[in-house]
Design a protein that fits this description.
By secondary structure, this protein is mainly alpha-helical. It has a domain at about 140-180 and about 210-240. About 75% of the residues lie in helices and about 0% in strands. The protein contains twelve helices and no strands. The protein has helices at about 1-35, 40-50, 55-70, 75-85, 90-100, 105-120, 125-135, 140-155, 160-180, 185-190, 190-195, 215-240. Helix 6 (about 105-120) runs antiparallel to helix 7, helix 7 (about 125-135) packs antiparallel against helix 8 and helix 8 (about 140-155) runs antiparallel to helix 9 (about 160-180). The longest helix has about 35 residues, at about 1-35.
């Protein structure tokens, strides 16, 4: 019974979200009818189609926007994300690199390109883009470090993966202490990292700036993944 209720709630929430997107798409379509030569409206509708999983419609809108305004850089950003989601990473790479030629300091595009390189199995290029994205984000989320470390571990670069986790520990701990926090929060900022692999040793009511239970769980998963890769590497070496 409880499971049925959970599934019902999940489905209704998802349906409501899709309903909201339908309304937004309809609204932008009405705006396009009034201003059919506004390229930015097609980009906006393309993004909504992408969020809704309508990738063919999204690409069609980006193509229309490009014809109306070839200088509009955001077209290639939207195209790149859509092509990636459509399982076309090589085409996504080309679009995102075109966008970054004009907007080299765009953190979201750098992150999107990093994910494309992961899909293309180009770990060195992926890590370089993750590093650029992290530098460009003022206050990066722990998940950004987790994703970079996981990509490195998947490419058997275990030492580099651990260094990324250490880098995140140093940077996010420093940010928590440097922000508009109370002295008590600053003193406990390090706990968010040092006890993260063991949720039982951290307070469940961590101060602002500390890691949430979900983030601690994510870190444990990343470290476990690194450990599994390390174990597999050692087993292969022992067999040679």
């Amino acid at each position: 019974m409880a499971l049925a209720l959970l599934l019902t709630g999940f489905g209704s929430g998802k349906a409501a979200a899709h309903g909201d997107l339908h309304d937004q798409i309809a609204d932008v379509t009405r705006q396009i009818a009034r201003r059919p030569d506004d390229a930015r409206l097609y980009v906006k509708r393309g993004e909504l189609h992408r969020f809704h999983g309508e990738l063919t419609d999204a690409l069609s809108d980006y193509d229309r926007a490009a014809r109306l305004d070839p200088a509009l850089a955001e077209v290639d950003l939207g195209r790149g994300k859509t092509l990636f989601e459509a399982g076309r990473p090589a085409d996504a790479r080309a679009a995102l690199e075109r966008f970054l030629e004009r907007r080299p300091d765009h953190a979201d595009a750098r992150l999107s390109l990093a994910r494309v390189f992961v899909r293309l199995r180009l770990p060195a290029q992926a890590d370089a883009e993750f590093a650029r994205a992290i530098r460009l984000v003022g206050r990066p989320k722990p998940d950004l470090y987790f994703e970079r470390a996981t990509a490195l571990a998947s490419a058997a670069r275990l030492d580099a993966a651990i260094r990324v986790i250490d880098e995140g520990i140093a940077r996010l701990g420093a940010l928590a202490a440097a922000g508009p926090r109370s002295p008590a929060v600053s003193r406990t900022a390090g706990c968010c990292w040092t006890c993260a692999p063991s949720a039982t040793t951290c307070s469940t009511s961590s101060p602002p700036g500390c890691w949430s239970r979900a983030e601690r769980s994510r870190l444990r998963a990343v470290l476990a993944h690194i450990g599994q890769r390390a174990g597999a590497s050692l087993r292969r070496r022992s067999q040679t």
